[in-house]
Amino acid sequence: xxxxxxxxxxxxxxxxxxxxxxxxxxxxxxxxxxxxxxxxxxxxxxxxxxxxxxxxxxxxxxxxxxxxxxxxxxxxxxxxxxxxxxxxxxxxxxxxxxxxxxxxxxxxxxxxxxxxxxxxxxxxxxxxxxxxxxxxxxxxxxxxxxxxxxxxxxxxxxxxxxxxxxxxxxxxxxxxxxxxxxxxxxxxxxxxxxxxxxxxxxxxxxxxxxxxxxxxxxxxxxxxxxxxxxxxxxxxxxxxxxxxxxxxxxxxxxxxxxxxxxxxxxxxxxxxxxxxxxxxxxxxxxxxxxxxxxxxxxxxxxxxxxxxxxxxxxxxxxxxxxxxxxxxx
Length: 329
Ligand code: SN0
Description:
Layout: E1 3-4, H1 13-25, E2 38-43, H2 49-60, E3 64-69, H3 70-73, E4 77-78, E5 91-92, H4 93-103, E6 106-110, H5 118-122, H6 125-134, E7 138-140, H7 148-161, E8 168-173, H8 183-193, E9 198-202, H9 211-214, E10 218-220, H10 223-227, E11 232-236, H11 258-261, E12 268-270, H12 283-286, H13 293-316, H14 323-327
Parallel strand pairs: 1-7, 2-3, 2-6, 4-5, 6-7, 8-9, 8-11, 9-10, 11-12
Helix pairs in contact: 1-7, 1-13, 2-13, 4-6, 7-8, 7-13
Bound molecules: N-(3-carboxypropanoyl)-L-norvaline.
């Protein structure tokens, strides 16, 4: 695995889940694998879980980690080709990424969409340019359109808790006060479509996600109907994809409560966090025994560790390094 941006970068998602569960049992089994390898984590937006779990994963593998809050501590980046930089941008992504590529063996970036121009956000211009100029293996810490480390942790959590071989998993839209990215939902849909679960999406009309990620997933606009017999309910807000970046509904009836939960098959309730209590999810659900949000967050470490382990083995393992045997005396 050179880059980890989407489920498409993973040849066998089920195997990656099994490897992550092995690492959870024995986190220090590969404590020397990342010796003398440096992971650089660059944040253009806030982060709690991604920042800490990815650092912890790297430390478990013996790597060194450098973290930078680019939005607050870095120079303002220019991304346009051919720009005359006589305004507020100070450094071009060409130099910034190339320099970081000199210091780091693997680079991860968080870069949220601006939610103003769909074409621009969905082109993933920033991460594509970073990969091109840094030339190191690359790990997405949430891009404009996807959040693969979150989705892998979600799949690990579902695998741990499932009581049947084909659980029913429902992704439900929830209200929010702000326009949020579609990335977590796109990514969850993409991973669920590749994992053999019975997957359903429910949202108000106008919140259809891109079929590039949802494929032919069943969409039910009646939330009560969609929740019937669910084994897992994944709660997430996203802004409209079709009326790009807009909030089309603030209907409080979409917030999951115990009364709605009663329609499910004793479902476990999932959310990627951070969650706005009593807006996206009720206190009674979050404080109740069916919420698995902390287990999901715990699994972020082993999702990141499984991915970093694959990258280290694929890109740096001496098994794949023939240069020494050709030139050594
Ligand atoms: C982000 C999102 O993509 O929805 C990150 C989730 C891991 N969430 C937010 O930006 C929440 C912001 C807020 O004000 O609640």
